[in-house]
Amino acid sequence: MRQAGRYLPEFREVRASHEFFEVCRTPDLAMEVTLQPIRRYTGLLDASIIFSDILVVPQAMGMEVEMNPGPHFPDPLNTPDDISKLSPSVDVNKELKYVFDAITQTRKGLNGEVPLIGFCGAPWTLFSYMVEGGGTKTFQKSKTWLFKYPEESKKLLLRISDVCVDFLVGQAKAGAQLLQVFDSWAGELSPYDFSEFALPSLQAISSGVRSKLAAEGIPVPPLILFAKGANHALPLLAEQGGYDVLGIDWCIDPVEARRLVGDKVALQGNMDPNVLYGGKDAIERTVKRMCEGFRKDRGTKGWICNLGHGITPGVDTEDLRWFLECVHKYSRN
Ligand code: CP3
User: Fold this and answer.
1) Where is this gene product found (predicted)?
2) CATH number of 4-247
């Protein structure tokens, strides 16, 4: 996830001499940092995720985004009139070609060792960055939009969905073997507002990606949705979301999550990443309990082991190795 690289000294070394978006835009560098954890934890990881960021989509739509050290938009969308500042149409094959090139090159670099995940941000999460101009604790500006200008908000959300569809289709064509959508701020919406604003744009992405790839005769890779904090929406998303896998954070018990989604989707998650600060015993205990919760006989659709959010910068690389070893040990049966 967004902070995932920073616990690795080899990542910090690359970043010492290259700006964040420079790494995203340079396929050699993006491949290098994508491969770093795969190399360090040989045989322990089952997939890699392309190095990029969800904010490349607002950039492709014509917005300026800096990373210093968090995201900053010098010219955010203050009112619906500002929508006219966005590019009227976005050619992702031009604007985001660097991501596609990084994916194709990284697939070659991985040489079949593990599959490569492509991703994008969900419209509601991207909308909130584009309107707030960066991170926020209150969501005051983005909620003002939703409640004062609901129709304009929905239009903008669907306009972002259109770009996400083309972006994910392009990533699949470039070689991505799974596609994940990150709705990091899904949990900021009430269940009603989630269905009203976030869900339609998430459905537009899953159905758009499926139909566009099918029209070109390209197999559709598994689609993963991580709607952080929106565990209330698990039954709805399993039923109507159009995704094969739902990611979950640590605020729901695996047994309960499986009960809510039935056998409709696979689950991905969900250890609290902060357990990685608790030392080897805490990590082992928690992994054991997580594996027991996601046990195979609780559902036929399977489980992808993951953390419930990104790895934070202070995590000890050997504690992370221990986490991975425990996962292999306790998930075997
Ligand atoms: O795991 C990976 O390294 C894969 C690449 C990846 C990044 N960002 C690189 C990154 C992925 C999958 C993301 C997704 C992302 N980006 C999300 C969704 C997942 C989540 O974390 O909720 C979001 C919300 C963003 C936006 C973003 N990017 C923020 C808010 C920040 C600042 C984080 C902070 O705490 O300061 C980033 C920066 C970012 N993206 C970093 C990395 C490795 C760290 C910045 C750096 O290297 O200086």
Assistant:
1) Cytoplasm
2) 3.20.20.210
Domain ranges across the chain:
4-247
Name the closest-CA residue to atom 1, ligand 1: 1
State pLDDT tens for residues 275-297: 999 999 999 999 999 999 999 88
Cβ contact 127:153 at 8 Å: yes
Question: What is the number of the ligand 1 atom nearest to the C-alpha of 180?
Answer: 12
pTM exceeding the 0.80 threshold for the entire prediction: yes
Determine the distance separating the centroid of ligand 1 and the alpha carbon of 182, expressed in angstroms. 11
Ligand 1, CB within 6 Å, residue ranges: 1-6, 15, 20, 49, 51-55, 67, 69-71, 119, 135, 182, 184, 310
Alpha-helical runs (H) found in the chain: 9-17, 20-25, 27-40, 56-60, 92-95, 97-110, 123-132, 140-148, 150-174, 191-193, 199-215, 234-240, 254-261, 279-293, 317-331
Residue nearest to atom 25 of ligand 1 (CA): 2
Atom of ligand 1 nearest to the CA of 51: 5
How many Å from the N-terminal Cα to the C-terminal Cα in the chain?
28
Catalytic residue annotation: 2, 6, 15, 53, 129
CA–centroid distance, 21 to ligand 1, in Å, is: 11
Burial of residue 245 (number of CB atoms within 10 Å: 0-12, 13-18, 19+): buried
pLDDT at 112: 97
Contact at 8 Å (CB) between 164 and 92?
no
Q: Is ipTM strictly over 0.90?
A: yes
Beta bridge partners of 48: 116
